[in-house]
Write a structure and sequence with these properties.
The complex is a heterotrimer of chains A (333), B (288) and C (231). Chain B is an all-alpha fold and 288 residues long. Chain B has twelve helices and two strands; from the N terminus they run ααααββαααααααα. Chain B has one domain: ABC transporter involved in vitamin B12 uptake, BtuC, CATH 1.10.3470. Chain C is built from nine helices and ten strands. In chain C, the strands form two sheets. Chain C has a six-stranded mixed sheet with strand order 6-7-8-3-9-10, with helices on both faces. In chain C, strands 2-1-4-5 form a four-stranded antiparallel sheet, covered by helices on one side. In chain C, a hairpin with a 2-residue loop joins β4 and β5. Chain C is globular, with a radius of gyration of 18 Å. The chains are: A mainly alpha (333), B mainly alpha (288), C alpha/beta (231).
Chain lengths: 333, 288, 231
């Protein structure tokens, strides 16, 4: 029995899978750009929507992963399969760093708005630090950090076997992202329904009560935080691969706020709404930026204010509910 | 001697900056718990209000500053009535909404006034001591900022309205049963916070380049100072700002400005971790 | 060896001593009431035993093992159950979900049977937030007892309940006690004390004032005076 909601999800993914068959590479690469931002948003939806913890640190992990990937792959540029294991190691580093920060926060008793401030501070520390690494002395192995201009020219994700190259670009990159998104969404929904997910949701409401039922809330929150960092890292690595560069501004104050905006406007309590909403919002920002730069941002501002006031569950989420209901009405006919 | 004065000036300048950045936010966030990401924009409005009335209306600087504050209060009043009053008790939603407002205001200023606006001359003049020249105005700001803090302390902790405001915000339900017009108290308090932020913009306007993002320079400093000040912002602001400026100034002195900023951010992280009630909590504990 | 041994524990807040060298023993199978006027230190003692407050001095032993260094969740996993003063159920979750947080090992049938005691077995999909105050209290008790811990702490379980609901609560505790669960209950309500208390400890100004059976306590003039504020 297919639920109405599932039909909607299937329709969206079917549409996404058809796109490379209908449009040219330029268009496909553009959509890939929108999709790569969904992972960091899903990570935020996990820690904020499910865990009730607003972190401004997602872009710190985004940047950390991107830079780690760049540094490792540049240093081992001609090593076999560097395009495979460099991103994996970068993700591992990011997850570990996420666990460390999570440990510091939750085992240190830091909560609510203080988490926002501390994670924002961490993000700004990384940005400030990386921005002043311009000189030649700032290099890790062969990889110069390049300060404000950031790093470029890293080997792409992929593998070269004798003469055949399988690099992540074009339609291949696009499909990789779509399937990865499908897989991760499935995992996130599994987590939501699991005992782990229930403990997380309950902790949002009353931490002490959950602990008094025998659960180690701090450990669970730390693990969740690390998972969110990992998801942010996936976006970071895909971004670096997509454009071939990573800069400190991806960890600035504005960048740090973007995932919060996307997730809040889409509906932080529903993963699929966040996925779809992120794609749409990045698309809208880009379109407006091209056609009316100044007004684009004003419009984004209004979207946020109106969402909070009239659509506190998220515009995309409420839109989805509306469309899903319309679907079932049509089915009845 | 001159060296000591130099240090005093650097420290005082950093201190007054943190204090003045924080005052409006201390009321709106410290007291009312609204995470106001548009705080920088309130300061921008105060600055532009001042500069525009000085340049276009040709008002003398003190009057121009008052106009700047007035414009900010009006803005704050309208904002409170339309949006903010729906956000009390919803901290995470206030993050999103105020960020939206911040985007609207800063971009609107860009559209209306362009990327930069003709600035004002810093009042008074500079004086020379040893190798460096110092601004009399900024020296004056050190004392003015402390004075404003003292006045705020007296107002919120000693005056009738101040006590009423604090009690109402702490427990609006009980206040309502006692006949307090909770709605009005919140509104007036928010306007006071707006006025203070406008004042910050007005005070700094003559010393800065007038760009639409002028408020952005204050926002991170404002938040970290208010957060480290702790639960009683008017007790904790001066100690918090002093500690942070001390760290920033001394590290900048030994290394350079960027490292100073890093040291400041690190200190904030450590303070939040080890002093959960901020500096006001520390002072209250020491008093016992 | 007693199930729970509290040995000369003290808790100070700044200059104020909330609990002053209190020693108590709780034997297996007991229903011990902890009573005393407001500010006597009952809740503080309660929180010290379960691990919300640290001790300034003294020991707490559970089954002979010192537990002062353990966290709240670790103590629970040793075999304790806790119900705090205000009903703390998860309003945004269903009754079923609330209970599945409390135990992983019970089948649906076992949960259903267990809930019968609390008159909640037919409302399992209802949001806990929609329950009446009385039913919330019972859900709270159900949550801390469904995993059948050895020792359950209840902090004012009858707060806000009607006379009938209070009686029913007493019956629930009694039937759980008959299955072998030991109870320590902080209370102000003398009706439920008379109904089910096996032993009573009286706290006054942070000290253990008197200990005995329910009958002994109720006929003790000094204890009654404390409650009426005379002494």
């Amino acid at each position: 029995m297919l639920k109405k909601n599932n039909i909607f999800v299937i329709l969206v993914f079917a549409t996404l899978l058809l796109i490379p068959l209908l449009f040219d590479t330029y268009y496909v690469n553009n959509i890939s750009y929108f999709i790569l931002w969904t992972f960091i948003s899903l990570g935020l939806a996990l820690i904020w929507g499910m865990g009730g913890i607003l972190s401004f640190g997602q872009t710190a992990f985004f940047g950390l992963a991107g830079y780690s990937f760049a540094i490792i792959s540049i240093n081992f540029a001609d090593t076999f399969a560097v395009g495979i294991w460099a991103p994996i190691i970068a993700l591992l580093i990011t997850a570990i760093f996420g666990a460390i920060v999570g440990y510091f926060l939750f085992y240190g008793g830091i909560y609510d708005v203080f988490i926002g401030i501390v994670t924002l501070a961490i993000t700004l520390v990384l940005e400030t630090f990386m921005a002043q690494t311009a000189g030649p002395e700032w290099a890790i192995g062969n990889a110069r950090l390049n300060g404000f201009n950031g790093m470029q020219g890293m080997p792409p994700i992929g593998i070269k076997i004798s003469d055949s190259k399988f690099y992540l670009n074009g339609a291949g990159q696009y499909y990789f992202m779509v399937f990865l998104a499908m897989f991760l969404l499935w995992i996130l929904y599994k987590i939501k329904k699991s005992n782990f997910g229930l403990i997380l949701l309950a902790s949002k409401e009353d931490r002490m009560r959950v602990e008094s039922l025998g659960h180690n809330v701090k450990k669970i929150q730390m693990i969740t935080f690390s998972l969110s960092a990992l998801l942010a890292g996936i976006s970071g690595i895909l971004y670096t691969n997509w454009g071939g560069y990573i800069t400190p501004s991806s960890m600035g104050l504005v960048a740090a706020s973007m995932p919060v905006i996307w997730v809040a406007a889409s509906g932080k309590n529903d993963f699929f709404s966040v996925f779809l909403g992120c794609i749409l919002l990045v698309y809208i920002s880009q379109t407006l930026a091209i056609n009316g730069a100044q007004y684009a941002i004003i419009l984004m501002g209004f979207i946020l204010v109106i969402t909070t006031r009239y659509f506190p569950d998220g515009i995309i989420f409420m839109l989805k509910k509306y469309l899903v209901n319309k679907l079932s009405f049509k089915n009845k006919l | 001697m001159i060296f000591l004065f130099n240090l005093f000036y650097q420290f005082g300048d950093a201190l007054s900056f943190l204090l003045l950045a924080a005052i409006g936010l201390a009321v709106i966030f410290g007291m009312m718990k609204i995470i106001n990401l548009a705080h920088g924009e309130f300061i921008t409005i105060g600055a532009y209000g001042t500069v525009v009335s000085a340049k276009i209306l040709n008002l003398p600087l003190p009057l121009a500053m008052m106009t700047g504050v007035l414009v900010t209060v009006i803005f704050g009043y309208v904002l409170e009535r339309i949006i903010i009053r729906h956000l009390y008790g919803r901290p995470l939603d206030s993050v999103v909404a105020t960020w939206g407002i911040s985007l609207i205001v800063s971009q609107s200023f860009l559209v209306l006034f362009g990327p930069s606006f003709e600035g004002l001359k810093t009042p008074f003049s500079n004086f020379q001591l040893g190798e460096y020249s110092y601004s009399q105005y900024r020296l004056l700001l050190i004392f003015i900022s402390i004075l404003i803090l003292v006045l705020l302390y007296v107002f919120f902790l000693k005056s009738n309205f101040g006590t009423l405001a604090r009690a109402t915000i702490e427990n609006p339900k009980i206040a309502a049963t006692l006949g307090v017009k909770v709605d009005k108290v919140y509104m007036v308090t928010f306007c006071i916070g707006s006025a203070l932020a406008g004042l910050t913009g007005a005070i700094y306007a003559p010393t800065m380049t007038i760009v639409p993002s002028i408020g952005q320079a204050f926002i991170v400093s404002a938040f970290v100072t208010v957060v480290t000040a702790g639960a009683s912002p008017f007790i904790g602001l001066i100690p918090a700002a002093s500690f942070l400026s001390l760290i920033q100034t001394s590290v900048t002195f030994y290394y350079h400005a960027t490292i100073g900023i890093l040291a400041l951010l690190f200190s904030v992280i450590l303070i939040i971790r080890f002093l959960p009630n901020g500096f006001s909590g520390l002072l209250i504990k020491l008093k016992k | 060896m007693s199930l729970l041994e509290i040995s000369s524990v003290t808790k100070r807040f700044g200059g104020f001593t909330a609990v002053d060298k209190v020693s108590l023993e709780v034997n297996k199978g007991d229903i011990k009431f902890l009573i005393g006027p407001n500010g006597a230190g009952k809740s503080t003692l309660f929180k010290m035993i379960i691990g919300v407050h640290s001790l300034n001095s003294g020991d707490v032993l559970f089954n002979g093992k010192k537990i002062e260094k353990l966290s709240l969740s670790e103590r629970i996993n040793l075999g304790m159950g806790v119900k705090f003063q205000a009903p703390s159920v998860f309003n945004e979750l269903t009754i079923k979900e609330n209970l599945s947080l409390a135990t992983k090992s019970k089948s649906n049938q076992e949960i259903f049977n267990f809930l019968k005691k609390f008159e909640l077995e037919n409302d399992q999909e209802q949001l806990a937030g929609d329950l009446s105050h009385g039913k919330k209290q019972w859900l709270d008790i159900a949550m801390c007892s469904i995993s059948e811990p050895e020792l359950i702490f209840l902090d004012e379980p009858t707060a806000g309940l009607s006379y009938e609901e209070t009686k029913k609560t007493g019956e629930i505790v009694k039937s759980l006690n008959e299955k072998g669960i030991t109870f320590v209950i902080v209370e102000h309500n003398m009706d439920i004390l008379k109904q089910i208390a096996k032993s009573v400890a009286v706290l006054h100004l942070g000290k253990l004032f008197f200990e005995g059976t329910a009958k002994e306590v109720l006929s003790n003039n000094q204890v009654m005076n404390i409650y009426l504020g005379i002494s």
